[in-house]
Amino acid sequence: MSINKVMVIGAGQMGAGIAQVFAQAGLHVKLNDREQEALDKGQAGIEKRLERAVEKGRMTDVKREEMLEHLTFTTDLQEASDCDLVIEAVVESMKVKIDVFQQLDEITPPHAILATNTSSLPITEIAAATKRPDQVIGMHFMNPVPVMKLVEIIRAIQTSDDTYASVREMAEKLQKTPVEVEDFPGFVSNRILMPMINEAIYTVHEGVASPEDVDAVMKLGMNHPMGPLTLADFIGLDTCLYIMEVLHEGFGDSKYRPCPLLRKYVKAGWLGKKSGRGFYIYE
Ligand code: NAI
């Protein structure tokens, strides 16, 4: 199936970046958000990133203009009626996502593929809420989307081979590296990353080492570009806790129990960079 028209739903951190990479690949993209303010913010973010790319000589003025012509912004979901592919990047709530997918199921043409950027929710359950479960799939981009090369392509148990092949081809067209993943809690990325972060927090909790020293071990000893606690602060400690709970519940295995210190920080409102304090203090 040829994919020409795309809609991205949710103009937040992820959605705006996803719309940008589609426009960069020459596709017509509509960015949707239910809030005009969020849409304006998403648009401003894209324009600023493109401006910076032109200033730094990474993009020509002509290419920037071309990309902006490929992008439109709308609060009206009905505009998905001529789209071949829709990528949902709204808040991480099953209730909200199912509501969006059921509306899309009615609005979009029968051939359209419906993808979700969820980082933890079961794609199989989202697919089951639609009348086209074989055309539902996970397309998990990494943050910041324009920079990170990986896209995890997550197959729900119902996803057809054709849907998978179309989405994989699209990811390659976006110049990303797709990785095929089955729908299990945490997929691959968070199943491996979050227990490492949780273990780093246990190491601090048990007084084995300070946050600075834990990060130094992983950076200087393991060649990680960023220590696990710096990364946790960047992701948001509430998000880390939420994903650990998904793993814990999904596998029913105590090895995924969230560290009590992580719970305590979240209760204190110490959520990392976004709240000004996590394992480190941010001015
Ligand atoms: P965000 O909070 O920055 O943006 C969400 C946007 O969705 C908001 O602008 C909100 O107004 C909009 N929205 C909410 N309900 C809507 C609806 N019914 N229709 C249209 N728009 C709606 O969230 P963020 O960080 O961009 O995350 C979005 C999704 O991407 C989540 O599922 C998250 O788990 C996933 N994700 C996030 C990553 C991250 O590092 N932030 C990484 C990979 C995936």
From TrEMBL:
Pfam families in the record: 3HCDH, 3HCDH_N
Record domain 3-hydroxyacyl-CoA dehydrogenase C-terminal: where: 186-282
Pathway(s): Lipid metabolism; butanoate metabolism
Keyword vocabulary terms for this entry: Oxidoreductase
Domain 3-hydroxyacyl-CoA dehydrogenase NAD binding positions: 5-183
Family, as annotated: Belongs to the 3-hydroxyacyl-CoA dehydrogenase family.
Name the UniProt record assigns to this protein: 3-hydroxybutyryl-CoA dehydrogenase
Species: Halobacillus kuroshimensis
